[in-house]
Amino acid sequence: MIVAFSVSPLGVGEDVGEYVADAVRVVRESGLPNRTDAMFTSVEGEWDEVMDVVKRAVAAVEARCGRVSLVLKADIRPGVTDGLTSKVETVERYLAGGETPGTPEQPPAAP
Questions:
Q1: Under a CB-based contact definition with an 8 Å cutoff, are residues 96 and 89 in contact?
Q2: PANTHER family from the entry (predicted)?
């Protein structure tokens, strides 16, 4: 499973990078595959281990501010591993012209 999440402190002003860094530190120290971009951190693993990381990341921010906003999106697909890399590689192949996407099936022509 892949979980993309964003944790933000509330009531601390606009500069939240220091708080977000606390959450990202928890994710990186977990040892699970992860990526952080400008909006979300994605982490990949089994349900219980991923949710534990999210919970600890939220707790790290909450410990410093008392109120936290959490946005979470999950791709639950048993049997898939290395989705963080393979999903992006697939899109990159299409962008590079290395694969041609399937075309929608056309209805038969009228007689």
A1: no
A2: UPF0045 PROTEIN ECM15
pLDDT in tens, 9-44: 999 999 999 999 999 999 999 999 999 999 999 999
Indicate whether 105 belongs to any domain.
Answer: no
> For residues 14 and 59, is the Cβ–Cβ distance under 8 A?
no
Provide the 10 A C-beta neighbour count for residue 2.
Answer: 20
Position 101 scores a pLDDT of 62
* Sign (positive or negative) of CA dihedral 94, 71, 27, 83: negative
Whole-prediction pTM: 0.82
Cβ atoms of 3 and 46 within 8 Å: the answer is no
Question: Is residue 59 included in any domain, yes or no?
Answer: yes
Instruction: Work out how many domains the chain is built from and give that number.
Output: 1
Are 10 and 68 in contact by the 8 Å Cβ rule? The answer is yes
Residues whose CB falls within 8 Å of the CB of residue 36, separated by 6 or more in sequence, listed in order = 24, 27, 42
Half-sphere exposure of residue 35, counting CA atoms within 13 Å on the CB side?
A: 12
Domain that includes residue 15, residue range: 2-83
